[in-house]
Amino acid sequence: MGPRDAAQEKGVEPGQGPSGTARPGSDVRRRVPRTDVLLREPRLAEAARLLGAPVVKAAVREAQERARAGRVAPQDVAGAALALLPDTACGLRPVINATGVLLHTNLGRAPLSDAARRAVAGAAGPTDVELDLDTGVRARRGRTALRALADRVPAAGAVHVVNNGAAALVLAATALAAGREIVVSRGEMVEIGDGFRLPDLLVSTGARLREVGTTNRTTAADYAAVVGPDTAFVLKVHPSNFRITGFTRAAEVRELTGLGVPVVVDIGSGLLGPHPLLPDEPDATTQLRAGAALVTASGDKLLGGPQCGLLLGEENLVRALARHPLARALRVDKLTLAALEATLTGPPTPTAAALTADPTVLCERADRLAASLAADGIDARAVDSAATVGGGGAPGVTLPSAALSLPEPFAALLRAGRVPVVGRLEAGRCLLDLRSVPPEDDVRLAGAVRAAAHG
Ligand SMILES: *Cc1c(COP(=O)(O)O)cnc(C)c1O
To answer: Is 70 exceeded by the pLDDT of residue 14?
Structure first.
């Protein structure tokens, strides 16, 4: 129902609001530009090229309605329509991650580096992803990305990339263990999130799970006792989203390499080498040097790249996986290959920068933001905070951080803003943790808080 219909239904003259307040006269309504005229306006025509005509038409109609209701001046209708338009032709909204969880699964895990974003944009059109431009003949798909990965992990005889970490495990289980046994510790039967459980995933491939040990303690002897002719491989899974502490024991990879079957290690987080700040987080190089035949990992956790699954290990094994028919169904697209290569060869990722950010600098940023917002009459304070890695990496590790503390209602207001900001609630306050916010976003963050405060 338009405002005019509403007025008529209440028996009010179209020139008056329901309470008798002045409403724009019919002359004002006649001065509202016509749809076809607005759609020819250069900025709206360009928007239609970038976003599609239907979304622009809908914004124009809404802006016209507002003008007829007297809420927009007739000469401002085009501007009002532009302001209503989304930035992109997709429903995914860019947000500022101020949760303090560096790899937030609900926010798409690792943010891509500028290098990776450029690489994605560059690969969006036709590319030589599977063609050798020198010879004009077909070439290995994604060879430069695969070489970049191999270069970063010399301990791997070969590498392959699939759609995500779960796909890497499924490919390994299908190609190596369908109809046979995978030996795994009861302490490593992990649910990765949203109800997905790795044991279910492995069994879905036709492999059988042979559980050994107990929830808290599994020894190398437990594995040795069950490994036999039907064993396809021993699987070690990093408990990447929980910790078992106290009376615990787990077998190391090097204790399991003499059992006569491959040891496959799902490290989860995608660290290619040891990280000084995360001493308990397993990395591909160390696991391979310890004798793992195959390592699987995600690309969008601590590696800081796009969603993908990494397979690194003995050449014959990795080649067999890459040639398996299922590999075709799990292959990554050119955009992923582009982003992965740029992540591997480019400057430090936003994830790496957030992980190593100096707490003193984070405090200075929080102080500066709080002072500038408080000067505007906003109840903003700088507080100490504890950030986490999240996203299936470094459970239990907290990273000293600093946050902007705001009244609780800001949480919903900030999520609803033009640039949505996602914070976290703590003790009745809305905290915006700066460790997960790149410093270059501080200005946008302050703008979003001001917009939320002043409606
Ligand atoms: C995250 C994770 C997975 C799943 O990886 P996706 O890339 O989300 O498919 C599997 N295993 C471990 C140990 C993980 O941490």
So the answer is: no
